Amino acid sequence: MFEFLKKKTRYRTAVILVSIGLFSGALGGLLGLGGGAFVVPALVFFLAFDQHRAHGTSLAIVLAMSISGVIVYSFHHYIDLLLALEIAIGGIAGALVGGGIVNRIKSRVLRRMFSIFLLAAGIKMSVDGYKMLHYVLLDGGHTTTALAATQGAGILLALGAGVLTGFLSSLLGVGGGIVMVPMLTMMLHLPQQQAQGISLAAMMPIAFTGMLKHHSLGNVDLRVAKWASLGAVTGAIVGASIANCLDPGRLKIAFGVFVVAMAAFMAAKRK
């Protein structure tokens, strides 16, 4: 009797974890996001994880999702690993700076500033997407990322985009993708799919480094990560495949609307 109940509970937990992974992976693959913003609260709510354990375990799930998403985007030639590495290096540096001054700025001020940034970025991306759909104005066309990654100005822009992404992410505790994709489209003028693919690629070394650190502290539950990653990998493949089939203008509008919604959510938070 009790053994049956234990098996039933394990089955239910596995279904919940796979579902969490599927949703976060699909969203991440579709929009080039890590999915941690959904995974962390889900682990806290459904499994009663503390924040440290939820963050550490989510990094393992984000890593698995990012790898599968990058594979799909690479099939469509949207991945430039050198550019992604430059952005990741800048992101790590920015995160260190942001983490060092986060306690010196009032959280309410940070939220307002970040909400304004997201609102402006979301509106611009939505408008650009609308123009692409209705006026056939390509946002930079098929930008060659190899040129941006190897030339001096391109390297500085890539590092700068990474620094700003890491800085804001560390300062505000949000996932890098929500900041990185707008940065790549606005600063480096990358097409939407390319920005999303490179965003996922840049997340891999960051997530891997963070996961190792959390694992050394005992904050990574490998059994939970295993089941959630199963769903995340599947969801990311589906989401990334859909993203690469969509018109860039429609995808840019979808991302812009999502960013505006996040801006409203951040502005509404009181704590």
Q: How many E strands?
A: 0
Distance between the termini: 45 Å
How much helicity do the residues have? over 70%
Number of continuous helical runs: 11
Number of structural units classed as domains: 1
Strand proportion, as a percent range, falls in under 5%
Mean pLDDT score: 82
Assign an overall shape: globular
Keywords:
single chain, mainly alpha, 11 helices, 271 residues, globular
How would you describe this structure to a colleague?
The protein has one domain. Helices cover 82% and strands 0% of the residues. The chain is built from eleven helices and no strands. Helix 1 packs parallel to helix 10, helix 5 crosses helix 8 and helix 8 packs antiparallel against helix 9. The longest helix is centred in the first third of the chain and has 30 residues.
Brief rundown of the structure:
The protein is 82% helix and 0% strand.
SSE layout and pairings?
Elements: H1 2-31, H2 36-47, H3 51-75, H4 81-101, H5 107-135, H6 145-150, H7 152-172, H8 177-187, H9 192-216, H10 222-243, H11 248-268
